[in-house]
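Case study B.
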Amino acid sequence: MRLQHFSPPLPERLIKALTDISIRTDTDLLLSEDPTKIFMRLPPELGFSLLDFRNAVAKVAELASASSLHGDALLEKERKRQEDIFADDMLVGVPDVDALLGGFSPPQVVEVSGDHLSGKTALALQLVLRHLSLVSESSALWIDSSGEFSTERVGLMLEQMNGPAAHTVLERLQVSLAFDIEAVHDVLENLRQSLSSRDSDGDVPATRCVVIDSITPLLGPMLSATSSQGHAIMTTFMRQLRAYADSFSLTIIVINASTKMLPRNPETVFETARKPALGPSFTFTPDATLWLSQRPSEESADEAATTHVAEVLRSRISVSPAHWRENTTH
Amino acid sequence: MSDRLISTLSSLPAPTLNALAGAGYETIRDLSTATPEQLSRDLNLSLPASQAVFAATRPSASFPMTQSAAAMMGSTQKPFSTACAPLDRLLDGGLKRGYILEINGPPGSGKEQIAVNAVRGFVARKQEVLFVDMQNMASPATIKRTLMNSNPTVDGGGAALVRHLALHSAAEFVIFLRNLTAYLDERPATGLLVLNSLAFPFQCEFSPKDRNAILERLRQTLARACASMGLSVIITSQLVTKPVEGNGQPGSAPQGSKMIMSPAFVHKGKDYLRTSRTYRVIVVPQTRTTGVIRLLSTPTSQPPAHAVREESYQRVRGVIV
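Model:
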């Protein structure tokens, strides 16, 4: 952070003198050299004593450091958030799947990945539509990166939802088309502006859930073995998502495709033919990764139904290890 | 001035971003007091580079395409008739804007003629058409004659709205695919894209990986065009002969085994051209002049084997009605 941007501001002459000896940011001031040595490089006619300078450096250190949080205040906040889960009602509606991560209530960033036709879009769509049909003051944003959003599918799923607000669901579901990562940044920027400028009790519904359908075509082409810029763009984007989720209390579902896994280990318990795409570090950026796969259905099952399995591949929000089991869903 | 982080402006080159980060600029708001000349002096950047920084921070002129799902559902206009009554019945009225129709069928079943006749519906509603012909089945003269026969009052039958492109090889197809997005951006009035005989450029010795990569690219381009500008697409494709063992499983063919013909772009159960907006039909001729058109899949479902929808047709002077 530049020295000019601190508030309360430092004395103007001091800032100018420091800029002349090429100290422009707080990192330069605090970390490049001992303050006494910096003071000796300053011109003597400035009129500052060593004590004043060291006080100024201490003030910059205080302003630049992160604010402290008390553990008991954090615990209180977490308890209150647990109580609000039922008010928010962000659940898929299948108890076993909801128990995998303890519900999907905000603020969370969850990655859902799986093979082609494993039910990722269906899971995200069901979560969003169920929430919108039960809570009438919230809206959702669906970012479609491949043009695959199908209103027929939404209509079919909506027929089976019968919450109190089911008739206004379609007006509160916003669909954006974004074919590259810049466009997604623009959409999220618009969302940020609209959320920060609304009043707390206006009658515009607040966005509570954002789904990015298929982040793989947005980030995948930029990852390369020779340059790390794609990787940097990916991690910056995911950290931005986390920041949005925290500051506006959103649930963000990121849908990811799958890729081949080599080498195969024939002795593992789980299937190891496919893994989530976008590389090994992508899975550490959201709060949890769910892996969906389709099981071949039994002979006696209904022909139109398919059986899927959801596993938690990695999570930093699950509470008890007893939940890291396979659960079946239809 | 927004609080957007400068590191999210991925259109700027990495050295510029590093220089900005090293100088302590974190959000766009921090740049509000600087000018390009001052920035290029402080950061040792060239003046064009620092001007690019300011150009990138300006709010983008194009609004993101956002609409509510209700608006999307409500904006379906009247579907376009394909001029083939059984096909219109299968599609519940015709081909809607932004949807893809894939017509499969054996050679000589008249599917390319369906594609040419379907152009009439779009021209009648003043939509531009891009007709890509890959097997010389429909020359510009044929299309113009069809249009003039159906609409003799309009000048040239409206043929000025139809643009024709003839391709023959896979390389030409790949070039076409790369230029397609730019072409559609220049001509937003295009309502229909016809890919006639799509299987023909792929007939030569192709490794499956290359073919699938091209098809995947085609699928993505079409999905984006259909979603963003409501382009309708008609694809005619051929059938390939595949050997089938007695129990219906695909496999190598011992002597005298059954061969079936199935749509060209389905391999091992995976359909390479399926998007969420595709209707697939197959023309099944049963006699020289009659047959059925069967619906293979719709955007929402794949009908199970016992409940397929079929519509019978008759050929009158070579044209399916």
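Chain B has nine helices and 14 strands. The remaining cases will be described in the next quarterly update.
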